[in-house]
């Protein structure tokens, strides 16, 4: 989903073709390699978006001794779907890192809606954390497993506190930057 949001957001600015996007992603920092985005994956996502009617071919560039380049444009349906995809990304991402493409494309969505999605997510994380703490208090641990339970408890506590901290910070940042 992130790759498709990326493609649609690029097409909101200008018509382009897959190889050009791949090249832009690799310079000056090889973001394509860091994200594991191969050329074939990029072409697959362009094809998938075209089949859904979210993008369309607007030009074919022919060059001697080179493969034809299909230049794509976003359709009206694609413009309508982009915000929905971004909202879905915020709802379903495993963590903030998974929201990156949505965060850099906030201009295509209602910030209040994103804040509401993130607040709901925050409440779920806090509720889940309360459940875990409740279970932890009921555990009866043998002496030989105390080290393991202490270690895992500290590890999970640290992860949850970090998630809560960064979600709260993200919510506040989005709210502050909407003015």
Automatic annotation (TrEMBL):
Signal sequence annotation: none
Domain Transcription regulator PadR N-terminal: 7-82
InterPro entries per the UniProt record, alphabetical: Metal_resp_DNA-bind_regulator (IPR052509), Tscrpt_reg_PadR_N (IPR005149), WH-like_DNA-bd_sf (IPR036388), WH_DNA-bd_sf (IPR036390)
Top-rank taxon, per record: Bacteria
Protein name: PadR family transcriptional regulator
């Amino acid at each position: 989903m992130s790759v498709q949001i990326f493609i649609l957001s690029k097409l909101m600015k200008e018509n382009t073709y897959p190889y050009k996007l791949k090249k832009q992603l690799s310079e000056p920092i090889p973001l394509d390699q860091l994200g594991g985005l191969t050329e074939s994956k990029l072409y697959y996502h362009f094809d998938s978006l075209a089949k859904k009617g979210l993008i369309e071919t607007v030009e074919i560039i022919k060059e001697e001794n080179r493969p034809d380049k299909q230049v794509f444009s976003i359709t009206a349906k694609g413009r309508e779907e982009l915000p929905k995809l971004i909202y879905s990304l915020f709802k379903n991402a495993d963590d903030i890192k998974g929201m990156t493409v949505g965060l850099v494309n906030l201009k295509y969505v209602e910030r209040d809606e994103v804040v509401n999605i993130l607040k709901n997510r925050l409440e779920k994380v806090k509720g889940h954390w309360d459940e875990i703490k409740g279970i932890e208090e009921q555990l009866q641990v043998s002496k030989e497993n105390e080290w393991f339970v202490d270690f895992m408890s500290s590890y999970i506590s640290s992860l949850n506190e970090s998630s809560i901290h960064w979600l709260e910070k993200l919510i506040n940042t989005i709210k502050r930057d909407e003015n």
